[in-house]
Amino acid sequence: MPGSGKSSWGKKLANALQYSFVDLDKFIEQQEKLSIQEIFHVKGEKYFRDLEHKYLLKTIVMNHVIISCGGGTPCYNNNMNMINENGISFYLNGTIGLLVDRILSSKRQRPMFLGLEKAEIEKKMEELLLNRTPFFEQAHYSFNIPQYTVQSFVNKAIKLVLFT
């Protein structure tokens, strides 16, 4: 989900393991030379989801890499099954209130929430969570945030990655 910490926690885990880190959205932007927002606007969501699948296929076969997927990635094109078959998946599960607060306080602009008031963001997050949770719950491991700190997540995840 947006605001769950996928990128920041993923980077910390990758550093601790001395693995590479790939933010799938940023990887797509670099490869396509367009922002995710531009891809959605010009080509549409279906086109973006197909690109996302294409680049996920390129990244999940890499060795010693932590991949931060976009929040919708697991929900399309059988991506969650592919993720689980090719690696260890983690779901960072936060309450809507926590996620909305993080989105509102973030310096990073998130295209799907541009121009929305807090109540509108909460409503959109509820819809996303309702639609995406069945996919997220297929992850190998789930971490409730903020019950886990970044460091406690990294410590636990290292053991899961190295001994699974």
What does this protein look like?
It is a single chain. The chain is mainly alpha-helical and 164 residues long. The chain has one domain: P-loop containing nucleotide triphosphate hydrolases (Rossmann fold, 3-Layer(aba) Sandwich), CATH 3.40.50. Helix content is 58%, strand content 11%. The protein has 8 helices and 4 strands. The chain has a two-stranded parallel sheet with strand order 1-2. The chain has a two-stranded parallel ribbon with strand order 3-4. Helix 3 crosses helix 4. It is globular, with a radius of gyration of 15 Å. It starts with 5 loop residues before the first helix and ends with a helix. The mean pLDDT is 94.
Spatial order of the strands forming the largest sheet: 1-2
* Average pLDDT for all residues: 94
**Percentage of residues in helical conformation:** 55-70%
Q: Helix and strand string, N-terminal first?
A: HEHHHEHEHHEH
Query: Structural class given helices, strands, pairing?
Result: mainly alpha
Task: Profile the largest sheet.
Answer: 2 strands, parallel
Second CATH tier, the architecture: 3-Layer(aba) Sandwich
Provide the CATH top-level class. Alpha Beta
Alpha carbon gap, first and last residue? 25 Å
Morphology:
globular
* CATH homologous superfamily assignment: P-loop containing nucleotide triphosphate hydrolases
Number of domains: 1
- Number of strand elements: 4
- Number of DSSP helical runs: 8
CATH topology: Rossmann fold
Work out the radius of gyration.
Answer: 15 Å
Low-confidence region ranges? none
